[in-house]
Write a structure and sequence with these properties.
single chain; FAD-oxidoreductase_2; alpha/beta; Succ_DH/fumarate_Rdtase_cat_sf; FAD/NAD(P)-binding domain; Flavocytochrome C3, Chain A, domain 1
Length: 462
């Protein structure tokens, strides 16, 4: 397509929602996806659920999940660092998104069980994010959306208050197009580890990148350099603690470990450093990447015993196992005496465990221990003992393009008349810090649809 009405940069959930919405409004749409076709979809192919407000049961979701409760959950994890207007827009609109998703090929399944506790709040995709991405591409194709893979956008030319051209390379050739409107949905900069290191310092070189290696922030940097309004802190990101044996890039959601609430977590000196039982895991898993990043050599270690092994989602790599804590310490490279002392102090601080409930806040807490463990605190006494190493796994960064409620970008106080952004590239407009399970898909779906609608209206009028 030599002159599309709309160029959409990126090929994940937000880009696809924008493309489908714009195509249904009659626009000719071209998606420029940096990845090869087998790896299309960005981080969306690693997702598995969508956090959704609803009044009463909706699709696979049970009970209800109100706007106010959803917002309270978001404010708790972000520490209030959010744009409440945009947050409420995302939350409120999510209810209508679920049936829209079903109408466009996405299928859902009952919630996963265990530590996730999400049957009321999060709708799980049948087949995971890869199936969602494939369904959307099939729908987009039927609507006439064109896709170019291995198309790396290098520059958007801004002339005053509009984008006049898009430059990209494909198979060694340089191409230029002049769309009427542009939607940027190309993610954060997390795969550029040099950029991460500039923000975080040398510690970032030890981080693992959970998602696609293609989100390097090229378009983001290009637009910020030209004065497009930015939002967010470059050190803030969706960072979780993942299995230390995960690959450098693209390990995906399977490398996440959900055992922390039932464990103690120590650093390389075998010392605990945070409350493992602070809240249910979907509201706390995303803080652990930063916690581990602050430890020596950016590594942590999970210690559990036999009675906790079946309480969480199975890990992709088997845990390290030993019949004694001393042997476990040796296998994990930890100081044995210090680990035994830490576990002993923890065990001594545990009290009545009769109220233990693995999927709810149970108040089974330690006494006189710093830091405390405020839920699920049971002594680690039953062999064999198990351990996992933890590393910081970055999913996406929050430095991004600032948008308004129409997903439009701006320079100063002036809107860029034909530029919109959706998904992780603008998520920092809502996520100042922290993360809420499934909320990235909410942002991408809501603002992808908004951006597609607005871009199509602009293109159709011009």
């Amino acid at each position: 397509m030599t002159s599309p009405d709309i160029a959409i940069i990126g090929g994940g959930n937000a880009a696809l929602c924008a493309a489908i919405t714009a195509a249904e409004a009659g626009a000719r749409v071209l998606i420029l996806e940096t990845a090869p076709k087998p790896y299309r979809g960005g981080n969306s192919r690693h997702t598995r659920n969508f956090r959704c407000m609803h009044h009463g049961p909706l699709g696979p979701l049970v009970d209800s999940y109100t706007e106010e409760e959803y917002l309270a959950d978001l404010i708790k994890v972000t520490g209030g660092k959010t744009d409440e207007g945009l947050a409420r827009l995302a939350i409120r609109t999510s209810e209508e998104c679920l049936p829209w998703m079903e109408e466009h090929g996405v299928r859902f399944q009952p919630s996963l069980s265990g530590t996730l506790s999400l049957a009321r709040t999060n709708a799980f995709f049948l087949g995971g994010g890869k199936s969602l991405v494939n369904a959307y591409y099939l729908t987009a194709e039927k609507l006439g959306v064109q896709v170019e893979y291995e198309a790396a956008v290098t520059h958007l030319e801004l002339d005053d208050d509009r984008v006049t051209r898009v430059d990209y390379t494909r198979h060694g050739q340089t191409h230029t197009i002049t769309p009427k409107a542009v939607v940027v949905a190309s993610g954060g900069f997390q795969a550029d580890t040099d950029w991460l290191a500039r923000a975080w310092g040398p510690a970032a070189k030890n981080f693992l990148i959970r998602g696609t290696p293609y989100n390097r922030g090229v378009v983001l940097a290009d637009l910020l350099d030209q004065g497009v309004e930015q939002v967010g802190d470059p050190t803030q990101c969706h960072a979780v603690a993942i299995d230390g044996r995960a690959p450098k890039f693209d390990g995906g959601i399977v490398t996440r470990l959900d055992c922390v609430p039932f464990s103690i977590v120590v650093n390389k000196d075998a010392q605990r450093f945070y409350d493992e039982g602070e809240d249910v895991w979907p509201k706390r898993y995303a803080i652990w990447g930063r916690l581990v990043a602050a430890q020596p050599e950016q590594v942590g270690y999970v210690i559990i015993d036999a009675k906790s092994l079946e309480l969480f989602m199975p890990s992709v790599f088997p845990p390290i196992q030993a019949d004694t804590l001393e042997d476990l310490a040796e296998k994990m490279g930890l100081p044995a005496d210090a680990l035994v002392q830490t576990v002993s102090a923890f065990n001594d601080a545990c009290g009545d465990t009769s109220g233990f409930h693995p999927t709810e806040l149970d108040g089974v807490t330690t006494t006189g221990l710093t830091p405390p463990k405020t839920n699920w605190a049971r002594p680690i006494t039953e062999p064999p003992f198990y351990g996992y190493s933890l590393r910081t796994g970055v999913t996406f960064t929050y430095l991004g393009l600032k948008v308004d409620e129409t997903a439009q970008c701006a320079i100063g106080n002036r809107p860029v008349t034909n530029l919109w952004a959706a998904g992780e590239t603008m998520a920092g407009s809502i996520l100042g810090q922290g993360y809420l399970a499934g909320f990235g898909m909410t942002i991408g779906t809501v603002f992808g649809r908004i951006a597609g609608k607005e871009a199509a209206a602009h293109a159709n009028a011009n």
